[in-house]
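User: Sequence recovery, please. Input:
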């Protein structure tokens, strides 16, 4: 079907143009079907995971308590001088 390439003076026949359009549409249709199928499967898996998390038994409760950090004061020791490296 596509083994002969037309020169400048030759035209592509109407049957060849129609078959090219049909094959492009069939290819896009197959691609759309598989892409949409994978999308639907991903949505269903997400819904199943969401429902499974709703019925989990040992869920930890969320508390609104604030935990204070321990107060550690900075201890400045002016007697100790660590700025000089002895070689």
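Assistant: Recovered sequence (87 residues):
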């Amino acid at each position: 079907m596509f083994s002969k390439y037309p020169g400048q003076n030759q035209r592509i026949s109407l049957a060849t143009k129609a078959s090219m359009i049909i094959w492009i549409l069939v290819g896009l249709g197959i691609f759309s079907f598989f892409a949409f199928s994978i999308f639907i499967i991903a949505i269903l898996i997400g819904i199943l995971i969401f429902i499974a998390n709703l019925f989990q038994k040992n869920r930890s409760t969320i508390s609104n308590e604030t935990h204070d950090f321990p107060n550690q004061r900075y201890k400045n020791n002016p007697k100790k001088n660590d700025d000089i490296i002895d070689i």
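The mean pLDDT is 80.
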